[in-house]
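Protocol step 4 of 5: obtain the predicted structure for the target chain.
Materials: sequence only (see below). No template structures provided, no constraints applied. The aim of this step is simply to have a reference model before the mutagenesis design in step 5. Sequence pasted as it appears in the construct record:
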Amino acid sequence: MPETWLQPNRRALWFGCVPPLVIAAVGAWFAIRPGAAWNWIGVAMLVVAVAVLAALVRQLTRPRIAYRNGQILFNLRSGSPIAVPAHIVEAFFLGQGPAHLPGAPQGQEKTVNLVARLSQRQKDWAQRDVKPAFGNWSDGYVTVRGTWCEPLNADVVRRINRRLKEVKTLAEQMPADATTK
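Step 4 output (structure tokens):
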């Protein structure tokens, strides 16, 4: 199981669960009403609401940044995370950028972001496709939008950088033959 370094925005995700819960309740009410047409509509509403709730609960359990077996895992897209070897990640720092809030005019709302600087010598890690609402990955910098992660501040950045230093130091101390097994 990966070690969580940066949580998703749990408040936003819990708030996002409210509409599907309401739809599920209405669907359940329609499903138990007499009349075949209402039953099928209710069941359909219930199925869609449960699928959306499952997706939201999955997002609640997926950290934005995690660590496992010498790799930093960036969950900035659907599907599996992007696993970057820890020695390629140089540091984390705070930045600022567009919030990418749904319904807001793009570029006007700003948020605090967490930025990971990757080694400039590792050109193959310079660019990756990620979900724009979650972040950006270009020119060797990985930006995690603060809108969709736990509140960011200097303490969070210090904690992540301290842990990054610890895992890199441990990796350097391991014998060369232990890393190949």
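Step 4 remarks: The longest strand covers residues 89-98. The beta strands are 3-6, 65-68, 71-74, 82-85, 89-98, 110-118, 135-138, 141-145.
Proceed to step 5.
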